[in-house]
UniProtKB/TrEMBL annotation:
Organism listed in the record: Gossypium darwinii
Keywords: Oxidoreductase
Name by which UniProt lists this protein: S-adenosyl-L-homocysteine hydrolase NAD binding domain-containing protein
Molecular-function annotations in GO: NAD binding; phosphoglycerate dehydrogenase activity
Residue ranges occupied by any D-isomer specific 2-hydroxyacid dehydrogenase catalytic domain in the UniProt entry: 32-342
Family: Belongs to the D-isomer specific 2-hydroxyacid dehydrogenase family.
Gene3D superfamilies: NAD(P)-binding Rossmann-like Domain
Any single Pfam family the record assigns to this protein: 2-Hacid_dh_C
Domain named D-isomer specific 2-hydroxyacid dehydrogenase NAD-binding: residues: 126-315
SUPFAM superfamilies: Formate/glycerate dehydrogenase catalytic domain-like, NAD(P)-binding Rossmann-fold domains
Alphabetized PROSITE patterns for the sequence: D_2_HYDROXYACID_DH_3
Length: 349
């Protein structure tokens, strides 16, 4: 059910700024934002079921999209909408050009400023360790009162390929270094003066930590890098160029027995290719926080494999990151209400 409230005209001379959260998933996003704004009666925060969003969107000034799809038809109904933003970074569900046409700004919350990137990096390591130490098989051993089984693996000495070296990739590399791994990474473009250093001080050039990466490559190097890695971690943004990028040719290029981890977007992985390579044993394990279709089907056959770990899109869902992002949304709502410049977000149009 929607928690959409009746119009709360606290002061007839002061209009209310209305904030819309789309759908029931990731409920802490609207709960924490509502809590942050509770002392500001002129800001109203509602959450509306996904199917009802098109019918109600015309009443709102600010929208937090979550997993709602915004095409031109929906956007055309947003008559008083000034800004659509994500509770995080992913904007693939929003037709940004159509939003611009309708005079609506679109923005994301930078992950490095809220702890979201750090939370996602930690989840990637959780999934890596869970696969290496055979988490599912350990639970079986506990139930069967077995000791000393299964025999797991260690991160020590592994080569980790970070595909997409943005904020999450950088935070992941920082956290992986103490595990004594080799880090290779690809990125659309690296700063021209970027060099690999041996210093342990993590110096920065052009905002990118340099000495975290042992070998750097571009998008054209992903197959070569996949062939070198013991673990591949997807940290890419999803767009028309990256949808299904982890496909049959890519997985075939990975080492036999290598692990695949995805904490970015489910659509980066070709589902059939992943299942096929799990079946054949070529793929040594799969750890995903995001799925091809969400919410994930608990009866999906991919879960029959012992070497698959699935978490319910919670990589960025931590108390710290969600409180921080709720503050950003709340502050933006206050700025919007006051007619001030919008700060703390990254506008993309």
């Amino acid at each position: 059910m929607s928690s959409m409230a009746e119009k709360k005209d606290v002061d007839n001379d002061k209009p209310i700024t209305r904030v819309l959260f789309c759908g029931p998933h990731f409920p802490a996003s609207q709960i924490y934002t509502r809590e942050y704004l509770e002392k500001y009666p002129f800001i109203q925060v509602d959450d509306v079921p996904l199917k009802q969003v098109p019918d109600h969107i015309g009443n709102y000034d600010l929208c937090v999209s979550k997993n709602m799809r915004f095409d031109s038809n929906v956007l055309s109904r947003a008559k008083q909408m000034k800004l659509i933003m994500q509770f995080g970074v992913g904007l693939e569900g929003i037709d940004i050009d159509a939003a611009k046409k309708h005079g609506i700004k679109v923005a994301r919350i930078p992950g490095d400023a809220t702890g979201n990137a750090a939370s996602c990096a930690e989840m990637a390591i959780y999934l890596m360790l869970g696969l290496l130490r055979k988490q599912n098989e350990m639970q079986i051993s506990v139930k069967q009162k077995m000791l000393g089984e299964p025999i797991g693996e260690t991160l020590l000495g592994k080569t980790v390929f970070i595909m997409g070296f943005g904020n999450i990739g950088i935070d992941l590399a920082k956290r992986l270094k103490p595990f004594d791994v080799k880090i290779i990474a690809t990125k659309r473009s690296w700063p021209s003066n970027s060099v690999v250093l041996n210093s342990k001080d993590f110096p920065t050039q052009n905002g990118v930590v340099d000495d975290l990466v042992d070998e750097k490559g571009s998008h054209g190097d992903i197959y070569e890098f996949a062939s070198k890695a013991d673990i591949v971690v997807c940290c890419l943004s999803m767009n028309k160029e990256t949808v299904g990028i982890v496909n049959k040719p890519f997985i075939s290029s990975m080492k036999k027995g290598a692990l695949l981890v995805n904490i970015a977007r489910g659509g980066l992985l070709d589902y059939e290719a992943v299942v096929q390579h799990l079946e054949s044993g070529h793929l040594g394990g799969l750890g995903v926080d995001v799925a091809w279709k969400e919410p994930f089907d608990p009866n999906d056959p991919v879960l029959k494999f012992k070497n698959v770990i699935l978490t319910p899109h919670v990589a960025g869902v931590t108390e710290h990151s969600y409180r921080s992002m709720a503050k950003v949304v709340g502050d933006v709502a206050l700025q919007l209400h006051a007619g001030k410049p919008l700060k703390g977000i990254e506008l993309v149009n």
